[in-house]
Amino acid sequence: MDKTNLLVGLDIGTTSIKAVVADTASNELRVIGAASAPTKGMRHGKIVDIDQTASAIASALKKVSEKTNSKIYRVVTGIPVGLLQLEEAKGLINIGEQGQEVGDSDVKRVLSSAISSSLKEGWEPIAFLPNKFLIDGRTDVDDPRKMIAHSLEIHGILLTAPTTDLHNIKKAIERAGYQNNFFVPTPLAIASVALDEGERTFGAIILDLGGGTTTATVIHENKIKYATIDLEGGSDITNDISVVLNTSKNEAEKIKREFGYADPNLTSTDNKFPVNVVGESAPQMIDEEYLSEIINARLEQILDRVGNGLDDHDAFKLPGGVVITGGSSALQGTDDVVKDNFQVKARIFQPDQMGLRNPLYAAGFGVVKYAYSLADIDYLVNSVIYGGQITPKISEDNNSEKMKFFKRPQTTSEITRKEDYNKTNVAQSAHESDTDARDTKKNKKGLRDFFKKFFD
Fold first, then answer.
1. 9, 81, 345, 416: least surrounded by Cβ within 10 Å?
2. 346: Cβ–Cβ under 8 A, 6 or more apart, which residues?
3. Which part of the chain is the SHS2 domain (predicted)?
């Protein structure tokens, strides 16, 4: 398949790498395949072993390449909310004393001015979201090109990530044999597919239940209003099962996937399954309810910690409720547990395209959808940030059909100002927060109480 028609989204998670491939030949986004591969090179959303991560990336991309019968050279990679920092940015340039028409080069110059003026040492830009352009300091426009101006000013939000983390991600992709085209913010990518227009405007919570971390991002008025991270996820649930049932982690993961329920109310003690126990010659029979109690205890603790920050920011008052994504949300009854814990409506999102019908691929699908929908201005932004890495090349002569690959409807703002976000982005401390802080939480009886005390 012609590589120029392919758009490949890469989601580098703590426990697995996900890749989604879409074909854009017909001037529309058509997902043609997806694949995942386990990895041990990550910890809490960050790379701790480049070679192991590179091997997992290569495995996932090889799988999806064979599945789609296509050749992959470049990818677009999502950057998780835990690595993002937001800065207000603005730039100002002169166009000409007599006034002249604004072109692509002028837009690039003012973008460079805004980005360089706000960039902090130790951080690299990954995206810039323009809020407005000002012609001659007065006229507010979305796209200033072909307009006559003496000066051009831009206001927007600069999204950055730590230089060291970005270096590790790029190096892992390169060692896997591929190149990264550009980065996109994962929470906005997920919002582009998991939330409808009303939810993005009036507000909703994206709860991403990952393997190594759990993140909650509040989207309101097409902006990131708040984000919190808990450094526990599906792998911790697997570890709990391993410890309590005295079985290997591989066995624990297997029975979690095959027999696990997030909500004990959906289980029965009559339904039993064999578990290979360390030191025992014969498997032991365990019932679904017992396994579910183990799973539920850890999930409740994670939700308690995440919920504290969401409650403090009045996120539960937003009409969109909670939209759940991530591989761990595949456990049956997860939406019921979230609904009962947060006392809001909740639903699980999974892509409805063939081959993507698993919450695991929500972020990867969001990355390709977000990248495909980029507007002309967004592409100019990327050409400033990433230089020659971006393909195909843009020119003022390109017609709308050729530019379809990068078009996105322009909004006046997609993200909130830095103070509203950055003061809460140190959310990894949520992992250490007091799980008893929510005085509205109902006390559990019996086994649930036991497991909560056990894990505490």
1. 345
2. 207, 321, 322, 323, 324, 335, 338, 339
3. 7-194
| Six-digit token string for 174 | 């390169």
Q: Which of 75, 76, 69, 74 shows the shortest CA–CA distance to 1? A: 69
Q: Extract the tokens encoding 227.
A: 């984000």
Is 207 exposed, middle or buried, given 0-12, 13-18 or 19+ CB atoms closer than 10 A? Answer: buried
Match 């017909």 to its residue by tokens. 26
Name the helix (H) or strand (E) containing 307: helix 288-312
Q: 223 forms bridges with which residues in the sheet?
A: 220
> How far apart are the C-alpha atoms of 205 and 217, rounded to whole Å?
6
The structural domains of the chain, ordered by start, are: 3-82+164-189+363-406 (3.30.420.40), 85-162 (3.30.1490.110)
Q: Hunting for tokens 């000409």 — which residue is that?
A: 96
Digit-by-digit pLDDT tens for the chain (456 residues) are: 445 688 999 999 999 999 999 998 888 899 999 999 999 999 988 999 999 999 999 999 999 999 999 999 999 999 999 999 988 999 999 999 899 999 999 999 999 999 999 999 999 999 999 999 999 999 899 999 999 999 999 999 999 999 999 999 999 999 999 999 999 999 999 999 999 999 999 999 999 999 999 999 999 988 888 999 999 999 999 999 999 999 999 999 999 999 999 999 999 999 999 999 998 989 999 999 999 999 999 999 999 999 999 999 999 999 999 999 999 999 999 999 999 999 999 999 998 887 788 899 999 999 999 999 999 999 999 999 998 555 443 333 343 333 333 333 344 344 444 444 444 444 444 444 444 444 444 444 455 554 454 444
Instruction: Judge whether 143 and 133 are in contact, CB under 8 Å.
Output: yes
Handedness of CA 414, 416, 422, 426 (dihedral sign): negative
